[in-house]
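Hi L.,

As promised, Myotubularin-related protein 12:
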Amino acid sequence: EIHIKEPIEKEVNPHLLPGELLLCEASTVYKYVQEDGSNRGTYGKLVCTNFKISFLDDDSASDDNEPQFKNKIVGENDITLQCVDQIYGVYDEKKKLLTGQLRKYPEKLIIYCKDLRVFNFCLRYTKEEEVKRIVSGIVHHSQTPKLLKRLFLFSYASAAPNNTDGRNQTVMFETLEDWRDELERTKGNVKYKAVTTNEGYRVSERLPLYFVVPICISEESILKYEGRGIPIWCWSCHNGAALLKMSAFPKEQDDSTSQMQKAFLDGIYKTISKPPYELLKVDDLSSSLPSLQDIQTAYTKFKQLFFIDNSTDFWATDVKWFSLLESTNWLEIIRRVLKKAIEVAECLEIQHTNVLLIEENATDLCCVISSLVQVMMDSYSRTKSGFQSLIQKEWVIGGHGFLDRCNHLRKSDKEEAPVFLLLLNCVWQLVQQYPPAFEFTETYLTVLSDSLYVPIFSTFFFNSQHQRDTNKSGESLKTQSGPFRFLTVWDWSVQFDPKALAFLNNPLYAEKPKPDRSQRKIARFKHQRQLSLPLTQAKPSTKRGFFREETDHLIKNILGKRIGKFINSSDEPPNSLREFYDSWHSKPVDYHGLLLPRIDGPEIKVWAQRYLRWIPEAQLHGGGTIATTAKILDLMEEVQSLQVKMDEEHSQAVSGDVHSVPMLRNSARLSSLFPFALLQRQSVKPALPTSTWKDLEDEDDLVKRDDEFVDLSGDML
């Protein structure tokens, strides 16, 4: 039964950005509520612009009850064209993938998004002509290949006023001075130099205008093979050891060419490897890490677990959750990448050895490993501005092909791979293992991953600095010729107002203490932790029916605690690496020193906030980390108020402020996936098809326990 709302009295029009044009629309479209298998929903208008697909109902016209964490650019019912993953049509209850020209138009439209939202629209009550226009318009504008200059990025840049906040602290690495400052900050300027050889892109269009190489490398060497075979500096450790990367030579070449290239490489290695004073370890990532194709295949399987059409589907798949998760191999890839970063950190920190990462173009897995190593070893990279500068240096200026890897132009699925998302998943593992070490929150990482698909920022929409520079020139709509003024994603005020921005900053961040010269020893932040992790992996159970033990916890928020033990731990770390790993984990953590992720079995978890935030069944109301954070903040405020009273008595100034985070007062009503699920109503578990429970024991007991879960969620505090 469908409950029809009263027709909308006033015309609801979409909010259009500068340069945004309405392309097609359809009225009387019915949007289903995803929470259950019923046909409940709301009527409204479905529109498609050159920027987004948007559903407008009568609630869109009112600003009442707006969440505090609201994106100013992309609303709750908006999908940017780049965020559309796949579109399905439903014909006589059968789903069919929609691409290209359509002969027959569907009665239902299902849109799967890259941020894992699922939209279900019913078109039965819409006029036939409008259905044709809106369906063909959405499919054409979101699924067919397009030219770079057709991206909304250019329409927006030519029409939007340039009044962005100029106080951005992120180092953009677009000038020679930026590179020299970074060399000085890391004390790398003794052995390395910033070069201008690629000005005018005369060496290579792949490389940035400015980069850093060992002092002994000549300009002729850089020019010889278009920058291939040249060690490019990423970062220097406090002990002088450096992390370098290099573009490999093509493998299939004739003998004479490969001999010349081998001789060239030998000469280069000799200049940077001078035992016993300067040691060098070369690591070819194409052979030691999964291929981009493996990463793409794993993520494609993984994301399917979160495309839930309705509540019944959720509970049907939940019984097989662990085996489905294990079969994707995504968490195992994250574990392998983290393990590789630990290997590199051990070489730099303990062995004082330079590490040279090699990859075909040094713009994919090199970016992941070099960024992770810096996050683990350099506390500056764990601040917000430091992390943003790191992304600029290694990814944006470093030449990661965001346009191809995110497939923004829909030109080739073969080039697509979630490499940047892999980095964010790895950083999230560190953030959730060592929260006080990071100035930013997991919410920051989640909105950063969402920003990959918002084409008003140039940050993630070019393959290289050369491509960005050559496409900068253009005519503005105000008839003033001149270069486009692209926005950078690091100006978060474009997407969020100050209240929402508070969610991106970690109120529990342990800021680096200023050294007190009067005291010899600096107090280190200590953290109670278990001693060294077991040397042997837990043996997988021979009994395949382990789900029976798990069925009384059907909510996936427990996923992190059990997932890992079902994941195959491939090759064990070598003895020296294991010794380094265990030794570090047996000591108290210095939040401003080296951080090593815990990678054994159950420690690798699913990033619940990003992947489960649109699934009400996967949320604990009044539970999760947000409940803990709320309690800690209450204590901090209490301590601060006592401090104020003490200071008043002693007539001293207040020592500092606690960063207040809005909306944490009523934590019992918040979801564990806050702030994306704010005060959603509790999802009621539907009656399941009997086939789902046929193979499970103790069916009666499970039914009785159904209400126990509701009680538990209230007691999580």
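The CA atoms of residues 13 and 360 lie 49 Å apart.

Thanks again for sending the construct details.

K.
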